[in-house]
Amino acid sequence: MDKFSDQVAVITGGANGIGKTLAQALSKAGARVVIGDVNDELGEGLCSEIRAAGGKARYRHTDVSDSRSVSALVTEALSDEGRIDFMFNNAGIAIAADSRDLSLDHWRKVTDVNYWGVVYGSKFAFDVMAEQGHGHIVNIASLAGLIPFPTNLPYSATKHAVVGLSMSLRAEGADLGVKVSVVCPGFIDSNIFQASEMVNIPRTDVVESIPFKLVETEVAAANILNGVARNKAIIVFPTYAKIFWWLYRFQHSLTNSFALKTIRDMRKMRGKVPPN
Ligand code: NAD
To answer: How far is CA 98 from the centre of its chain?
Structure first.
């Protein structure tokens, strides 16, 4: 994709899953990637792989829940590379549970990464890009940011916030040369189902209960970059995600049965394991 050739792309949560595949696809397309993650071993390893294949990649330890850490990622990328063309605010976590089993600490943990992490990345990148007069912020939300996702309340709430933040910032950026897109995919075959905390429910049962075929991360990255290249505002895939989103906007009660099935299925598993 010519669009990304010699472009500087910063990716949070780029050591694994969707972020990793985005970093690989971008570097194959000729971009210089700067990866920020908490998993230094995977992040450094990925950068070495990209460089060994002839690409350009840097890694910096970054915890997106810490504003100073995200600020340092953006500042260092700017001083090393001279500009920032793309900022992928991708790092995210989930905690699956019946909401009665969630503590306020669970809520804060998800909010710190999924909401504040995107606020920090958007704010620092937007300031740089407005000054440059160009740039594209890509925030990875979820289908759970467009429709209800019972069993994952903090996740769904933070992803809805990311959609609102992104669409509002897109309007603010228009006259400043800064583009903003938000990505809202269905289920992707990443590490998130192993990394996620599951409270009072067994992980294997939760993973087996996912009602859709998982999209491969390579396919997800291709969909995301295709949407970004076309400057789409909201990038939604696969097809079932588009259908759910359309049904919810057309008549939200049409998606009630799916929401009810999701929580009823989960309640059958509730209490089968001690809290983890
Ligand atoms: P993943 O668990 O495979 O990868 C997440 C990456 O983020 C990991 O490298 C992890 O180390 C990193 N990370 C976690 N906490 C961090 C922090 N505080 N600071 C910096 N990095 C951190 O998950 P994924 O599925 O690739 O998730 C990427 C994004 O895609 C997330 O925002 C997620 O919510 C979103 N998403 C995932 C799916 C899905 O089904 N997998 C669907 C829709 C949206």
So the answer is: 23
Cα 245 to chain centroid, rounded: 18
User: What's the longest Cα–Cα distance across the chain?
Assistant: 55
pLDDT grade, residue 97 (50/70/90)?
Answer: very high
Are the beta carbons of 126 and 137 closer than 8 angstroms?
yes
- Close Cβ partners of 259 (under 8 Å, ≥ 6 residues apart): 148, 149, 150
The 8-class DSSP code of residue 113 comes to I
- 155 a catalytic residue: yes
Closest to 5 in 3D by CA, of 119, 112, 85, 123: 85
Question: What is the per-residue pLDDT across 187-229, written as a single tens digit (0 to 9) for each?
Answer: 999 999 999 999 999 999 999 999 999 999 999 999 999 999 9
Query: Domains in the chain, start-ordered, CATH in brackets?
Result: 2-269 (3.40.50.720)
Distances (CA, A) of 53 to 2, 44, 48, 50, 97: 19, 14, 9, 5, 41
Atom of ligand 1 nearest to the CA of 189: 41
The answer to whether the predicted template modeling score (pTM) of the entire model surpasses 0.85 is yes
Residues 6 or more apart in contact with residue 66 via CB below 8 angstroms: none
Residues with CB under 6 A from ligand 1: 12-13, 15-19, 37-39, 62-65, 90-93, 113, 140, 142, 185, 187-188, 190-192, 195
Closest Cα partner for 35 from 19, 49, 48? 19
Tokens found for residue 196: 């996620």
How confident is the model at residue 274, as a pLDDT? 56
